[in-house]
Amino acid sequence: MSALTVVATTFGFAYLWEQQLPSLVRLAWQQGDLNACLRYSHQLNALHLLGQKSLPEEALCRRHQAELAWEQNDYQIALGHLEQLVNSSISENPQRAEDRLLLLNWRDQLRNQALALFKAGELERSLAMLAPIDQSENNPDISLSESLRGTWNRNRIDHERLQELINQQRWWEALATLNRLDHPWWQSQAAPLRQEVETAIELIQDKQELQSHGESPSHSMPVNALNAAVSQRL
């Protein structure tokens, strides 16, 4: 068989298959088989020999598949189907505007859930919630995950540094480090340390005030005495 014959035969089969695909798409939609509907629609678009327009059933299948995936918390699949509706011609213009609004709403919901998890100290779960958005094409919010991770790491490092400063009794540096913590979870983790630091500073300031009135020797408070006083106050 010549190469020309093979090519002609291949195109002939493709042509015949494409003639059947619209009916298969509609039948799959009528039977509620969303997977088959999308599969046949994808094949129809891939062949695209006749230049015929996309079928309305494809948009319906993809929209329902997106809604089903969203209900099952499969956010990446849900966003993917909806983005394809928004970015392609398979959806009519009025419906495409509604799909775009729904896409923005879903992204907002994921961001809000991610931020709530982040504030509660659930960094990895927060980043996982943002992953479907980060993986979207032309996503303007891809830096949000990087921002959250950067904030978390900065607070973690400051918290570790805080403990070192307390061990060295560098109270004012410790207080400055405490005041740099801007994440609610890390602030709560540092609450006992803040009490320790503020108590130590208060004791030193009381001693300095007494010294300024000549009621106490001018030498500094011994470390052991300061530790004992702090522990007593706590």
Task: Characterise this structure.
With 234 residues, this protein is mostly helical. The chain is 79% helix and 0% strand. The longest helix is centred in the N-terminal third of the chain and has 28 residues, at 3-30. The chain is rod-shaped, with a radius of gyration of 32 Å.
Task: Please specify the SSE layout and strand pairing.
Elements: H1 3-30, H2 34-47, H3 56-71, H4 75-87, H5 93-119, H6 123-134, H7 143-167, H8 171-180, H9 184-189, H10 191-212, H11 223-233
Query: How confident is the prediction overall: mean pLDDT?
Result: 78
Order of helices and strands: HHHHHHHHHHH
Low-confidence segments, ≥5 residues, pLDDT <50?
1-15, 216-220
* Structure annotation, total helices: 11
The best one-word shape is rod-shaped
Q: Helicity, in percent?
A: over 70%
Sum up the structure in keywords.
234 residues, mainly alpha, rod-shaped, disordered N terminus
How would you concisely characterize the structure shown here?
This protein is an all-alpha fold and 234 residues long. It is built from 11 helices and no strands.
